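Form 12-C: Joint structure prediction
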Amino acid sequence: MSDQGFDEDLRSVLLEDAPREVPDDLRRRVAAVPVTNPAPSRPFRPAWRRPVLLWTGALAAIVVVLTVVSLRFGPAPGAGVGGVPSPSSSDGASAATTGTRSTSAPPSTSVSACRAVDVQGRILGWQGAAGSRIADVEVSNVTASPCFVRGTPGLQLVDGSGHVLIDSATAGPSGQPHIRSADATFELTPGGRLRTEVQASNYCGSAASPPIDIALTLPSGGGRLVATPGAGVSSADAVPPCLGSTGAVITMNGWRR
Amino acid sequence: VVDVIGTHSLRRPAASGADIAGPMPRAEASGDGTARRLAFERLTDQRLLRTYRLATLVLRDASEAEDAVHDAAVLAWTRFAELRDRALFDAWFDRIVINVCRQRLRQRRVRPLLLDAPPEVPVADGASGRAEREALRRALDLLTPEHRAVVVLRHLEGYSTREIAARTGEREGTVKSRLHYALRELRAAYDAAQRGTEGQG
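Section 2 - Result
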């Protein structure tokens, strides 16, 4: 008997022995788990292992060092090179290189939310994970005025013919474009850039034609922005493989500079 | 001590560049219990048939598999907040189910129960006979749960060695070795049954 016959018979035996549906009782018991059991909590970590404390401490140390250095060796307080006010914090120092500034409060009233026509999206590269594909996405302000980005956009994986392969509206926890009160606000000065990672998995549809783009629908009616592959970025391995009937997912990390 | 949850080792391959940090929705990250509960319910519901199937084939007992999947769901819920990358949920939940099955078999300390004989399935012309399939079934019963799990994950679910390693918490080399051993045993039983059938003919 050939290997193929053996493989087929083995799979056939497994299929025969496997249940074809979930008993209603089990489905009910599992659905009740979050209700009848204590809510999950984050595990205890000593202070030195807590990222927030670690980064806060590191940030404070950097601020102290920069302050001391600027007081001792720098130009007059408040003036940078050529008399331009220098950043007063590490946040500002980073903003000087990326043209962005993040706050938990909304920006000044003169700055409005970025619309899709104000920004340009680029895919900087694709990474493969176990069953997933991850795009490094960058958006930049292409206007002469500052604007801000806040919240989670709607996400779509789109192929070269404009066909939507995966849509967060129906696939994954990101859902529709939305803003939550805890979301940070990122101000983009002209030319300023923001980054995020968009992860897609389990596409079981028909073959997709390259290039693969990612469409972001900005919250609050900001419009639909399509991030296209940057120079030298291949879409050859951008479509996530089909993993089964569990449904496709597309989601993203929070925005960052 | 069995690492029933296996969160940390599941993240280990991710650290080599295959992961991104925390696509967990902001609502959950900020402690929104309702969002977390809804996410958990949806993810477990999507995965339920596959995990129940896996548990049944590893335990060889559908009723005990129900209890194992329920126990795994309770464990998963209590540690759900630790799973930052929800794309890993399927592998993570599979691993919990497999570990719960292992613990149950260890506590049982007897050979796994044999499944009820399945209904007779008509065999098409040219297909293998019932004797070979019964031999395969008996050989599956005799495998350890670890070996049976890798056979199910490869030959029923179609996962790669790497994906199986993520689900069992083993190294890829260990998975390959287990698959090799398990398939050798199954093949030997299958060939023996075939020789017996031919001898009768």
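Section 3 - Comments
The two ends of chain A are 60 Å apart (CA to CA). The first helix of chain A runs from residue 3 to 17.
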